[in-house]
Amino acid sequence: MTLLFKCDHTDLAPWLAALAEQLPDHRIRLFPEVGAREDVDYALVHAPPPGLLASLPNLKAIFSLWAGVDHMASDPELPRVPVIRMVERCMTASMTAHVVRQVLNLHTQAIDYRAQQADRHWAQLDLKAPFERRVGIMGLGVLGRDAAEKLAALRFDVAGWSGSPKAIAGVACYHGEDGLTDFLARTDILVCLLPMTGATRGILDRSLFARLPEGASLVNCARGGHLVDEDLLEALAEDQISSAALDVFNEEPLPPDHSYWVHPRVVVTPHIAAFSVAATAIESVAANIRRIEAGKTPLYVVDFGRGY
Ligand code: NAP
């Protein structure tokens, strides 16, 4: 069997080693060396050029190297085979660590204490126990659910919001448009872990911020397009939002003159919340290939009708 690999990582060695180890019976073709197109059974890709995948007549499945598939959804010629997003344990663990870090920083008022230290100013700010802090996770998929469970284990008062109903121990679950207002009204720290779809683009806007308690905080580690930047800056200026930790941006890299860089109440990280490690990513791809070869339905297939 043959797998076409298109990867933008600068260090390909661990990926090629993991592919050789986990898929020893596969020939690996490294893009742009496609070779005989009819040989290719699987494609593992990031940002494939439009038409590349459609030119592979015997393709059985497409694996995305990224969790999101927005990098390939714009290809109008995507073949009618399962498109599988990247779900792997390193990515989940790193996202949860990022979310927990940002929530703890916001909960413990790290921005304020940092500023006080710069001024050599000793003042004990309003102290709250974790169970007095209401965290709300938008998106209870693979990443949102894990983050919600770990925050609940740290004794935060955690709720989540999703498209369909969920039941997660220790997490108050809301869903759909009907559940959104109540979910927002009880959220002090809002974490966005939604996929980027037509329904979620620009969801973090002025009208959503107005439904949060005054002084709530925002963590966006999903996609920059979820956030309306002007609305956040306005909400920060009005203290409707007290602080924000942003990992993803409408324009990446964040332009040097963007006001987020110097905003005293915004923490910027350069899209590093979650990442894949070759060994665990290829382990996940190989397990799904074995499922397909055994005639089973693959896991984590994207539903382009829903957009994720
Ligand atoms: P997922 O498993 O597909 O989960 C998506 C969740 O969002 C589901 O709970 C889904 O509801 C919910 N949802 C989708 N559309 C909705 C809507 N219109 N209203 C309410 N809920 C909606 O996704 P995931 O693997 O957890 O990943 C989430 C996102 O994280 C990715 O799409 C990507 O953008 C982002 N990400 C960022 C980084 C980074 O480094 N910053 C890294 C990896 C991923 P249902 O449960 O009802 O389907």
Kindly describe this structure.
This protein is of the alpha/beta class. The chain is built from nine helices and twelve strands. The strands form two sheets. Strands 8-7-6-9-10-11-12 form a seven-stranded parallel beta sheet, sandwiched between helices. It is elongated, with a radius of gyration of 21 Å. 37% of the residues are buried. Bound molecules: NADP nicotinamide-adenine-dinucleotide phosphate. NADP nicotinamide-adenine-dinucleotide phosphate binds at residues 67-68, 91, 95, 139-144, 162-164, 193-197, 199-200, 221-223, 247-248, 271, 273-274, 308.
Coarse structural class: alpha/beta
Specify Rg, calculated over alpha carbons: 21 Å
Bound molecules: NADP nicotinamide-adenine-dinucleotide phosphate
Name the poorly predicted regions: none
What is the terminal separation in angstroms? 28 Å
Mean pLDDT: 96
Q: How many strands appear in the DSSP assignment?
A: 12
Outline: elongated
What is the count of DSSP helices, taking H or I runs of 4+ residues? 9
What is the percent of helical residues? 25-40%
| Beta-strand percentage range | 15-25%
- What is the N-to-C order of secondary-structure elements (H for helix, E for strand)? EHEEEHEHHEHEEHEHEHEEH
Q: How would a crystallographer describe the biggest sheet?
A: 7 strands, parallel
Order of strands side by side in the largest beta sheet? 8-7-6-9-10-11-12
